[in-house]
Specification:
By secondary structure, the protein is mainly alpha-helical. Helices cover 73% and strands 5% of the residues. It is built from eleven helices and two strands, in the order ααααααααααββα. A two-stranded antiparallel sheet has the order 1-2. It is globular and about 55 Å long.
């Protein structure tokens, strides 16, 4: 069995495992990586970009090296290679947990339990829930579903197609580092700079693919394309902008605007200004769109890997 088929079958099995079982409540590999990263941070932290870059290199490089060693060990056995790819895919994607948390908040809002929704929101994103009403919570959830479709599923599949198991683990490591130290707090403004910039680079292809697939899979493809062209560049994040704008246009809603993170108020541009305000019903619509995008991403990345292999083979023969 060739490497292309190993990725195709392994990634499909890993996504199926995530769909059926989701994330374990204890001992998740990403949580273990987070603990290890925290230990490295305690040893290396200085209010300096160089030390932050070293921290990023040690943690992300360690994840890539671990994946490369494991993949090399099992390469002689196709079944073991497939199993490793499936396990790595399951470990790094988080579509089911994303959907579960979003729907939990949606059910609370549907029942009129705004306080319950506020209590659940920190499980999904870093917004200040006390500053949000019901519609604001719904908007935050839809934005998080859009962004995390790229971060938690599509980006991982893209790098898995490019570099196999090392790509899968490396992408999740970079994304986790950004979540831990990449924000603009006084402690991490310098130390987390390298992690944030590397996450921007690693997330670039997955975000663009997610935006395209949201237009293809959404109920309003033209609206998705229009919103992305008009508004994505105004978003402060180079990767969240295209994804959130495309989701907003596809769903016919307005995203962006004023929000609060850790006591810090940000006034972000409105995405898809012709759309209506987000309601709690849009959470389920966003989750369904996320699922469709994830399925299409698997097909596109598998097809892209096979196509790249064919082109390289023809190039060697010519």
């Amino acid at each position: 069995m060739g490497a292309d088929r190993v990725f195709a079958y392994g990634a499909a099995a890993g996504l199926l495992g995530d769909l059926l079982f989701g994330d374990p409540r204890r001992g998740h590999p990403v949580a273990v990586f987070g603990l290890a990263t925290g230990a490295v941070e305690r040893a290396l932290w200085r209010d300096h970009r160089g030390w932050g870059a070293l921290h990023t290199a040690v943690c992300a490089g360690g994840a890539v090296a671990l994946g490369a060693v494991a993949a090399r060990r099992v390469r002689p056995c196709p079944a073991a290679s497939l199993a490793l790819t499936a396990a790595a895919t399951w470990a790094v994607v988080g579509g089911t947990s994303l959907a579960r948390e979003a729907r939990s908040i949606g059910r609370a809002l549907d029942a009129g339990d705004v306080e319950g929704a506020r209590a659940r929101l920190p499980h999904l994103c870093g917004r200040d829930p006390q500053a949000l009403d019901a519609d604001g919570i719904a908007r935050a959830v839809v934005e998080s579903v859009a962004e995390n479709t790229s971060d938690a599923v599509v980006g991982a599949l893209v790098w898995g197609a490019v570099a196999g198991v090392p790509g899968l683990l490396g992408f999740r490591a970079v994304n986790t580092l950004d979540a831990m130290v990449g924000h603009r707090s006084p402690r991490y403004r310098r130390f987390g700079w390298a992690s944030a910039r590397l996450d921007d680079v690693a997330g670039w292809p997955g975000a663009r693919l997610t935006a395209v697939l949201a237009a293809v899979a959404g109920p309003d493809p033209r609206g998705a394309v229009r919103a992305r062209r008009a508004d994505a560049a105004a978003h402060p994040s180079p990767n969240a902008g295209p994804v959130e704008a495309s989701f907003a246009g596809a769903l016919g809603v307005r995203l962006g605007g004023t929000l609060s993170y850790g006591g810090r108020v940000e006034h972000r541009p409105v995405l898809n200004s012709p759309g209506r305000a987000v309601r709690f019903e849009d959470i389920e619509r966003a989750v369904r769109l996320s699922r469709r995008v994830s399925g299409l991403a698997l097909g596109v990345t598998v097809a892209g890997r096979f196509l790249a292999r064919r082109v390289l083979t023809k190039g060697r023969l010519s």
